[in-house]
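Input sequence (240 aa), recorded before submission:
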Amino acid sequence: METFVFPDKNALAEGAGLRSGAILHPCRRKRLRSPSLALSGGSTPWGCSAPWSQARPSILGRRPGVLGGRTMRARRGDERSNYGTARRRFLEPLGCRPNDFSGDGREGTRGRSPRRYETLLGTTLPLEEGVPVFDWIWLGLGEDGHTVSVFPHQIGLWDDPGCCAVARHPVLPEMRITLTGRVINAARRVTFLVTGAAKAERVRDIIRGNGDGPRVPAALVNPRWGKLEFYMDREAASKL
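Predicted structure, token format:
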């Protein structure tokens, strides 16, 4: 595990963008395919996408393959929709076309939709031991310890045998499709992006380990073959 602490939220966003370039540019040059990225929702991950998209020529050189880390059952124009946010802040600045992004607002939570998304992962990404492998997954961290859309009250979804599961928001009347721990822990690199003093205790417990505290989904992130990173502002890291 590696930790990176920045003075504030803006410095974190800029640092994440620069580091992305240092990591992804060599990755692009060594491979024929574009790198695969999973983008979690949340204000901190989306806030870090702007410096990355501005540096696009040196980072990617061409369009990346982008998939949503969790999909909300919302129309494309809904402010809560991952697709709308990704299009405005990430896809259009990068020069991506709509079919370069999955999790585009058409997925629902009923019927075959989670399985449809799971099939997409299996046919789009390389497999290791039958599990789809992302090059990089960006995660947010909730004050309650949730990540993607696995919340503490449904922590069992983390160990779901599928690649995707249907989650229920604990407060809002929302059903979401979420990646499961099976996929997240198979990624080559997983990075938490965390800001704010309200998350400082949670960050401390996850990084240092807190055997006496309640088990939360974010503490279960442990890539089997890849790297785990925390990018934090000074407030979020204040209790380390």
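Checked by second reader. The radius of gyration is 17 Å.
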